[in-house]
Amino acid sequence: MMVEEEVQNASDATARDAVIEEIAARAGVRAERGRRFAELTSLRVGGAIDWVVLPETEAQAASVAGEFEKAGIAWRVLGAGSNVLADDSEHHYVVLSMREVKGEARFDGERVSVSAGFSLPRLCVEAARQGLSGIEGLGGIPGTVGGALWMNAGAYGHEIGEVVETVRVARGGRVVEVPGSEVSWNYRHTSFREGELLLGATLRLRPDAPEQIKARMEEAKQKRFATQPHGARSAGCFFKNPPGSGLSTGKMIDEMGMKGEKRGGAVVSPVHANFIVTEGEDARASDALALAEEIRERFRREHGVELEYEVELWSATNSKDEGGGMKGEEEKTEGKDES
Ligand code: EPU
Questions:
Q1: Which residue puts its alpha carbon closest to atom 28 of ligand 1?
Q2: For ligand 1, atom 15, which residue shows the shortest CA distance?
């Protein structure tokens, strides 16, 4: 790089930093520097982040997102970081963390309204206590409600999309309510677009006896405990199951003899082969990625099937990465015909 270019880049970065600080300050929102994805994701790997911005209310989140858009500042939304593998490089964009946008779950008859940063396991427990059924299969899935909505989280016969009445989304700095029926809720995938900020949702559940709901939730949790690693640094299932096949990717990786396979600090979980777990202080995102690619390569060879990532890969350099797109200069999605 030429010297003038370096100087120009440095001054651009300084100007951008000032804008970010000002936007956060104006909205009364905390903005932090010096954080790493290794601290913010459940896999505990991933590189430095320029800025982490932490709104505490849905309105604040909508407002800062709108301001970033206007200023052409690239940003990505992060919930609990339990389904994200961010690479080891420096990530030069703003991470809009929703984990403080928690509030309280507000129950009203069969409905519950909840913000994106609210804990999914806690919501399941509270719904059961209120005698409301429909999400008990999701009990114990780590993550936020926002993350669950984003990817239509599911387990043991329940998917969150089935019970969504409306989703609150940030558009043009404001909170807009979108009917759940206008969203496509697919297998671990929805029609929400990259960079779209989900603020919260109203779920409509079904009344049932709290004891029975709790029993079903307990059963799901026990199954999960028995068949999936817990307490380990993971991002849940790494790959989707081959669509429409009724096959389990985990079972197939297991049958390929890959449980316990290691690359640096990344290991194919000995408990469930569709989980990659990280171990030790020196684990890198590149270890997990290398292991994942090795699995995909062998899967392709032995089964002729291209495994699709279920975790989101966040690349520092490529904003159009699989599942890791970013809202920013070239990625603006204003003008898209929203419902
Ligand atoms: N199995 C093995 N070896 C393994 C893993 C599984 O033999 O290493 C066998 C199991 O014994 C069982 C069958 O494969 O007979 C299916 O296993 P499991 O019930 O764990 O289901 P799965 O298809 O592997 C899916 C979801 C999980 C979800 C469970 C339960 C995907 C990619 N995975 O796993 O979701 O918790 O069903 O509903 O859809 C996630 O989304 O992150 C996730 C973990």
A1: 155
A2: 251
* Topology, domain 2-100: 3.30.43
- Cβ of 106 closer than 6 Å to ligand 1, yes or no, is no
Task: Kindly give the number of the ligand 1 atom that is closest to the alpha carbon of 83.
Answer: 42
d(CA 309, CA 240): 6
- Smallest CA-to-CA distance from 115 within 179, 48, 156, 168 is with 168
What's the 106 CA to ligand 1 centre distance in angstroms? 32
Q: Where are the domains of the chain?
A: 2-100, 106-211, 239-309
Residue with CA at minimum distance from ligand 1 atom 21: 248
> Which single residue is written with the structure tokens 């120009």?
8
Any atom of ligand 1 within 6 Å of the Cβ of 130: no
Is 237 in the active site? yes
Q: Give the model confidence (pLDDT) of 4-40 as tens digits.
A: 777 777 788 899 999 999 999 999 999 999 999 999 9
Task: Assess if CATH 3.90.78.10 describes domain 239-309.
Answer: yes
Q: Which fold would CATH assign to domain 106-211?
A: 3.30.465
Give residue 122 CA to ligand 1 midpoint distance, Å.
Answer: 23
Q: Is residue 336 over pLDDT 70?
A: no
> Cβ distance 326 to 188 under 8 Å?
no
Distance (Å, rounded) from C-alpha 273 to C-alpha 249?
8
Query: How is residue 8 written in tokens?
Result: 């120009």
